[in-house]
Each structure stands twice: as C-alpha cells, then as structure tokens.
Amino acid sequence: MTRAQIEAQIRPFVVERFMFGQGADTLANDASFLESGLIDSTGVLELIMFLEDRFGIRVADEEMLPENLDTVSAIATYVRRKNIAAA
Questions:
Q1: Concatenated DSSP letters for 12-63?
Q2: Residue 3, by phi and psi: left (phi above 0), alpha (psi -120 to 50) or beta?
Q3: Which end of the chain has less neighbouring CB within 10 Å, N or C?
Q4: Rounded to whole angstroms, how far apart are CA atoms 81 and 28?
C-alpha cells in the first residue's frame, strides 16, 4: 500500500471524527493535530484504535509519539513503515 493510499484512508477518519465532517479541504497533510488543538489525548487513543483496526498494526507505547501520529503524512509514513517491517 502506498503512502498516498494510506493518507486517503486516514484523512476521512480525521475529518469525520475530529472535524465533524467539516473542512476536509482545509486539512493539510502536514498540519499538526496537536498544535491546532484538533486532537487531544483521548483523540490520540481513538486514532490509534482506528489505525490498529484499519491497517492491522500494533502501536506500541514507545511509538505513541508526535513524530508518528501528529499529521496525516506522519501517520501514513508510520503505517507504511510498520507494514513493510511486518512483511
């Protein structure tokens, strides 16, 4: 699965769950969820559950970092890396 394909699955979840279906065209792939206040600590847990269910990965405690989970692009890169490692 390419990074773009992963992003295409993450973006609708973020828009629907955290933006209440509004502003999909304003969410840049590199926009920080935490800096913008879009996702709080509870939201991060929801996001992790989504990623584990959708992509069949396990997000370890030590991987719960902004570098992995703070933007659509970072998440796509992280998921892709996990998928490659599992293959």
A1: HHHHHHHSTT--GGG--TT--HHHHTS--HHHHHHHHHHHHHHH-----GGG
A2: alpha
A3: C
A4: 21
pLDDT digit string (tens) for 26-52?
Answer: 899 999 999 999 999 999 999 999 999
CA distances from residue 81 to 8, 46, 69, 85 in whole angstroms, order as listed = 17, 20, 13, 6
The predicted pLDDT at position 25 comes to 82
Residue 60's pLDDT is 97
Domain spans of the chain?
3-86
Contact 82, 57 (CB under 8 A): yes
Tokens representing residue 26 in the block: 């304003």
CATH superfamily membership of 3-86: ACP-like (1.10.1200.10)
